[in-house]
Amino acid sequence: MAGKKFTERLHKGYAQVMELSGAALAEEKSRYQRIRIFDTVANGRVLTLDDIVQITTRDEAAYAEMLTHLPMLEHGRVERVMIVGGGDLSIADEALKHKSVKAVVLVDIDGRVVELCREHFAEINAKAFRDKRLKIEIADAFEYLGRPESKGRFDLIVADRPDPVGPGKALFGETFYERVRNALRPGGFATFQTGVPFYQPWEITEALEDLAGFFPQSGLYVTVVPTYIGGFMALSWAGNGRNAKLGTAGGIRRARKGFTSARLKTDYYNPDIHAAAFALPEWIKRLAP
Q1: Where are the domains of the chain?
Q2: Of 149, 150, 267, 285, which sits 20 to 30 A from 24 (CA to CA)?
Q3: Closest CA to 86 of 78, 77, 76, 96
């Protein structure tokens, strides 16, 4: 980070620059990665890991709400949720808004991320930290999913994984998806961050090929998170059961009814966005195997 600007060079030949407002709030090297937290003029408070943007307070809802409320409302009776990564707790905060939830288990390998986000992102995670249904495990999520006690335990698994670099590499590939499948209850869902298809088209193709090998149902939907540069962000899903499919007419009707009765407070998600998320541009459809 040089001067009063932060530059993220995530894609070859393309970068985004954020103007800072004040000094960095946190800047350190943990056992696993370089962690930086700072305020910006246009995007609110920002967390980066190894100089890759993870979350901003300005647009986190477009990511966190779509990974959680969409599958939870279609499922209709989610009781146990596991979050892979998610040390900023934005995903956990959304999942805990559902009264049906009895437990949310967040498994992040880097305890410093959790500690620093508790200190600096209270705007989005203070309620989650106070909720007795939340259990935080500082552990390797890949290893955690392979434990005997994880088998058939969760109704929803949200993989809030980073890009496939550094400690995040283990959260991609066939063995990871097999462990996710085994940790789901029958009829459960898993959702995954699958990159920005405009710049990372291979992530969709590879993920959907792998998911189809382990789950009876799988597919793709989209959201738009401005600071995940490149337009649409792809979110893939998998269902652990013959009828565990997202985006059906019946599922969308169930989600609409559930959203109204739960009186959820959201900034991005609503039932109309839910339905529209499955309408994919032709060029994204072509990326699917």
Answers
A1: 5-54, 60-285
A2: 267
A3: 96
Q: Give residues with Cβ within 8 angstroms of 8, minimum separation 6.
A: 15, 16, 17, 18, 48, 51, 52, 53, 229
Q: Which two tokens stand for residue 260?
A: 């109204």
Residue 20 CB coordination number (10 Å): 16
Active site residues: 160
Return d(Cα 123, Cα 92) in angstroms, integer: 13
Helix (H, G, I), strand (E, B) or coil at 118: helix
Q: What is the pLDDT of residues 249-289, one digit of tens each?
A: 999 999 999 999 999 999 999 999 999 999 999 999 999 87
Average pLDDT over residues 209-216: 95
230: CB partners within 8 A, 6+ apart: 11, 14, 196, 197, 198, 199, 200
Lateral strand order in the sheet of 217-224: 134-138, 103-108, 80-85, 154-160, 184-193, 232-240, 217-224
- pTM score above 0.90: yes
pLDDT above 60: residue 114: yes
Name 280's Cβ contacts closer than 8 Å, sequence gap at least 6. 220, 221, 222
Is the alpha carbon torsion for 86, 88, 94, 95 positive or negative? positive
Domain 60-285: give its CATH code.
Answer: 3.40.50.150
